[in-house]
Amino acid sequence: MKFYDIREVESSSLSIQLENGRIEKPKYDHSVSKGFRVLRNGFWGIFEGNVSDEEGLRLAEKNAIFESDSDVVEVKSEGRFEMRVKEKPEDVPIEDKVELLRDLERVIKDVCVSTKVVYIENIRIFRYRDSCGSEVSYSAYRTGISITGVGRGETLQFFSRRLMKAGGFEVLGDAITKAEEIREVLPSLVNARSPPSGEMNVVMDPNLAGVFVHEAFGHAVEADHVLQGATVLEGKIGEVVADEKVSIIDDPTIPEFGFFPYDDEGVEAEKKAIVENGVLKSFLHSRETAKKLGGRAGNARSQGVDVPIVRMSNTYMAPSDYTFEELVEECKNGVYLIGSRGGETNPATGYFHFNAQYGYLIEKGEVSEMVRDVSLSGNTLEILRNVKIGNDLDFDPGFCGKAGQLVPVSDGSPHVLCRATVGGA
Description:
By secondary structure, the chain is of the alpha+beta class. It has two domains: about 5-190, PmbA/TldD fold; about 200-425, no CATH class. Helices cover about 20% and strands about 40% of the residues. It is built from eight helices and 25 strands. The protein has helices at about 55-60, 95-110, 175-190, 205-215, 225, 285-295, 325-330, 380-385, and strands at about 5-20, 20-25, 25-40, 45-50, 80, 115-130, 135-150, 155-165, 200-205, 250, 270-275, 280, 300, 310, 315, 335-340, 345, 350-355, 360-365, 365-370, 375-380, 390, 395-400, 405-415, 415-425. Strands 9, 16, 17, 18, 19, 20, 21, 22 and 25 form a nine-stranded mixed sheet that branches. Strands 1, 2, 3, 4, 5, 6, 7 and 8 form an eight-stranded mixed sheet that branches. Helix 2 (about 95-110) packs parallel to helix 3. The longest helix is centred in the N-terminal third of the chain and has 15 residues, at about 95-110. It is globular and about 65 Å long. The chain starts with a strand and ends with a strand.
């Protein structure tokens, strides 16, 4: 065999949901899984099961039945990481977690016709070894809440906020501010006007701009997409792809929701500059794509012990010069868009279409009337070549889906001024 690796993942999760004053039965999940991969004759043999190392490798090799062109960079990593938290979630009584949900619901229920508040916690214990002599392990906590309110006025509108980070129960210390934001925004949102339409100046808040960075740009630099010819960035390493003020980074080492100390191929995590001063510097790689394209492995991730694939972690646009007030003044006339309700993007063409949670008109350099049901679309590279970037930075967490696998990620950005097409969602 050319290469083999063994992964063991132990995961413990708890979720509690409070919907319209009613607590649903808490969901607790605990799993222990082992995954084995053997690379022989350029073809991967894979086996998943809680068996001995010898048996698992034998069964994986038995599944390597064809020949292909797969190969890997042979990186040796050694180390152990244990996340230290101030308050272990499992040590907090479930009654206290329920009371937190009720506190958050109390803040928003007077302005809502429907409410849902969700608490999540997870600890992932990961162990890895391979034929290069690597042996690594880590434990990491993730804790979070999600709050959604539905309001009724001239229209029916929902507004959601979330707070999820790598860390213990202490990361929820200012969760109440997320609920207060819903209480403040929703009564105006339900009576807000429809947006203007057409190409115009747009100020994106860090949440929406972060989604743009992740969805419209980040997926286009995942090296498996490059190998498939499914990205507009293929062959552009070393070329100018954005304004010189644009730097885009993927950094799994910061304590945001996409944190990991080692990826799922045992490679030590590191901060990677994807774009630096407008120049495309690197793609994101697994061991296999790094071998084929020449790059640094370290961005292979999996759900459980599924096959690791190229994924982002904490991906963000670095801050620059402008204050928010200066961006609004520069905008002159246009819209200020806040939050994201999802959307779609095509890395092969660079086209994107997102829906904002809400927004405001900008008239004569000042923020004015609220607008609702707003969409934003355009071409990724055209946007990045003509942007003005704020001096703040904020992250928004979530779960990214790819090839049937969900992994925790975080998107970040300052406020950004660009030109794009706006319409009704």
